[in-house]
Amino acid sequence: MKYGVFVCLFCVVLLTSCNNDDNGPDIESVPPRLLAEVAPENDEEIQEFLKTHFYNYDEFRVPPVDFDFKIRIDTIAGDNADKKSLWEDIEVGAIKVSSSELGLEDEEEDIEHKYYYLIARNGGGGNPTIADSTLLKYEGSLLDGTLFDGSTSFLWQELPFFLRGFSNGVSKISSGTTDQITQNADGTINISNSGIGLVVMPSGLAYYNAIRGNIPQYAPLLFKLEVGLFIEDTDNDNDGIPSILEDLDGDGNLFNDNTDLQSEIDARLQTAFPNFRDADDDGDGKSTRDEISDSEGNIIFPYPDANNDGTPDYLDPDVN
């Protein structure tokens, strides 16, 4: 009897094993959509939002005594039917995006993506560039108001490492100034002449087909921004060249400018370093700072070009 039970159990296990697919169930892989399809769809959705919503512009024009200078957005309807839409105050910028920048296989080049920004209050200082370290408060949401990220106190952020729509939006808003800083009892600070605004961006300037928390695929994003301060001519790698000048092709993407990429590949480095993060931009063994400085350490400008070939020494591996 025990033997018969053992045989039956063995047969059950054997049948179960034989019917088990080691590779698991077939899952259909859906390829990412084309930028050329998604960009106009996102733009239509964004324009519809901007034309049907307004912000509390009256409070910014004549601030109430207890006004907290927060942007608040609502629908134009009912008691708010006569409000001026965001569309009437919005400004537009454009960035060309290639599929390779988003890690996509489709060979799409320079697909235009529009982003929209609004200035609720001009700051008392200058404007950061997309390459600067900037002191910010921000709140990120979907167009339906769903929040996904934010900071209620100022944080320093290196703009090149953030979403392209975000960093470009920040660069449109002037900052405050250090003489207008006040400290709160909890240790946080206020900057009374900070710049306040918002930016709305298509998914191609954000996360595109990636799902991030409660951000779905192909979702346009909205950021409310307060720009406190920034470090002018931020030098991310401390090589003497302001990071914004290391965007050699001027396309607003610092990560695709890497003069010594091939030498990094040949050296089998696990990480490639674009120029704004590389202290030796041409990979010739002499630091960029040394190649642009005199014997006393003073930076020479225009940057030296010893062989007069039009390429500065710090970008020319044949000169060191």
Give your account of this protein's structure.
Mean pLDDT is 92; it is low at 1-19. This protein is α+β, with helices and mostly antiparallel strands and 320 residues long. Helices cover 18% and strands 22% of the residues. It folds into 2 domains: 35-230, Chitinase A, domain 3 (Roll); 235-320, no CATH class. A hairpin with a 4-residue loop joins strand 5 (133-142) and strand 6 (147-158). The strands form 3 sheets. Strands 3-4-9-10-5-6 form a 6-stranded antiparallel β-sheet. Strands 1-2 form a two-stranded antiparallel ribbon. The termini are far apart. It has helices at 2-19, 35-52, 57-61, 164-171, 261-266, 288-291, and strands at 53-55, 73-75, 91-97, 111-121, 133-142, 147-158, 181-183, 189-191, 195-201, 221-230.
